[in-house]
């Protein structure tokens, strides 16, 4: 542990020792009473974290992309019209994914750094009848946050199933799945949910389940078919094991612990803490004279930030210097601007000291790369937001 460098990328994040301890505990049988209890409790806790009291949770072994695939495969049939709202790389991914299942996809792509224009979406929905639409709550390639409440409301108003990619938002950004009328909210374990990579997590509304139940064709993907997994989830939630494929026993034990910690903090407090961290990080970036990818704070994510490199500073050099100063950050991801920006993750159990350590390392890195700055100016800006 001594040589560990602070990991502040937008997932995987730093994990809590109690979560890692659960992950490292001896593996029990997947049909044992202890594991059944843990799995059942984790499913119940998902409903609370997602704020979807009547939603159906699913836990599959896989990454966030599998959760996207699971939603797409179960809800789309050949010929269905689908609207994809994209604010970056992960929105675009849905276009490719859903077309594999035979959907006729229309893509509405926001300019890089901009959020979804819901007036435009409303107009499009008035013209064309879609079965389903997708949005990315926080696109990790741009740090742009979409108004998920408006997305859900438009879905309900026009009778369109809504699928929200919450991979970089659930358990960090505010989500009230049921109140906001969202049909599927999906994520992966390694981000704000705070569990090492390996779990695809979804909560599905009754409406979406009944659309799935009325399919004319078989689900084209064998592994993710809800017909296989629904009885398993229902059974574990009753405290009795079910089987289709061996569950990721240790990861699910870790999920139970992490969801317990999240609920102990309380969802409203957790959302507020993420908002504070987002504002503090953006204030620090501004104080250091750097631009940011989101064109406005009003739609900037609170789970990660995306500063632009200042003129004359080479990205690779800066990230290497920041790492030398003690923090691992991520480079750019969006193909149009990849070399122009970097990314700082501040979600999950991030502490104020972690954020300050990252900002301090950025200051040190910028100085080492010759960018003029007043030492401590980023730290002061972050602290004034964090501590008032
Ligand atoms: N959606 C978003 C918003 C993401 O950030 C990611 C991962 N960075 C994914 C989907 C895909 O998740 P995974 O890498 O776990 O497959």
Provide an overview of this structure:
By secondary structure, the chain is α/β, with parallel strands linked by helices. It has 2 domains: 6-11 and 267-387, Aspartate Aminotransferase, domain 1 (Alpha-Beta Complex), CATH 3.90.1150.10; 17-265, 3-Layer(aba) Sandwich (Aspartate Aminotransferase, domain 2). 43% of the residues lie in helices and 14% in strands. It is built from 13 helices and 14 strands. A 7-stranded mixed beta sheet has the order 2-10-9-8-5-3-4, with helices on both faces. β6 (138-139) and β7 form a beta hairpin. α2 (33-50) packs across α8 (226-237) and α12 packs antiparallel against α13. The protein is globular and about 65 Å long. It starts with 5 loop residues before the first strand and ends with a helix. The model has no long low-confidence stretch (mean pLDDT 97). Residues 11, 63-65, 90, 136, 139-140, 165, 167-168, 188 line the site of 4'-deoxy-4'-aminopyridoxal-5'-phosphate.
